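Meet our chain:
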Amino acid sequence: MLAVDRRHRILERVAEEQTIHIAELATELDVSEMTIRRDIARLERDGFLRRTYGGATAHITRSMELLFNARALENAPAKRLIGMKVAEDFQASTVFVGIGSTAEQFAMFLRPREELTVITGSLPVASLLGTRKGRVVTLGGTVLGGDLACVGPVAAATVRRYHTDVAVLGAAGVSARRGITELDDEAAEIQRLMIEQSAALTLVADGSKIGATAMATVAPAAAISRLVTDSSAPAAELDALRELGVGVEVLPRPGHNRNGARA
């Protein structure tokens, strides 16, 4: 197994279980514990992991931990895998990152690069990425308490100053009929502007959000370039989204195979 494949497997294990044990992983991958330790050291140096006694945990800043309320913890393993999947092949040099726990997981696994500029209204995302290589721009404005997100006229004016290659956004709901929706009017307005100012939109949403509708409209479903979700999403709704031209990518839920059955 190549080193990059081993490191990817380490990140998968952390995403699924929040922690790993070096001895177990060395046995599973048929390599020495020293090899796994070197892989973990590299991932820690790149900002993806924090080493602990006997293993490693995902690197989560203190401000991100504040968001681990009941809503953020729902479907957490699936959200981590979705965020990691989008981050692993991310090549854009400019990106808007939205609010919500799945978008935060994308930021957690995003590879540090000097040439990368991230523009975000999420204070947890800004706090996490501000410790790494690359440029981080926060929107400013009024802070929305539940998500620690910048909203209001100041935040909107900042979004309008930029154009990005892609926006990576979460959503409270997404359906073929109702499009992308959010729980809060002010948050929806910032998400809407980010879509308008981006060349493409990647939506990250676990299966519970697919087919759901929240109060505030963000954009029609046809605005989505790529939707990454998990296998608990309703198949009929995903088919309807595909018919609108949405590129849909479905990941197996942790502990299940790609057909949705428990492994």
Remarks:
- Residues 58-71 have pLDDT under 50 and may be disordered.
- DSSP finds eleven helices and 15 strands in the chain.
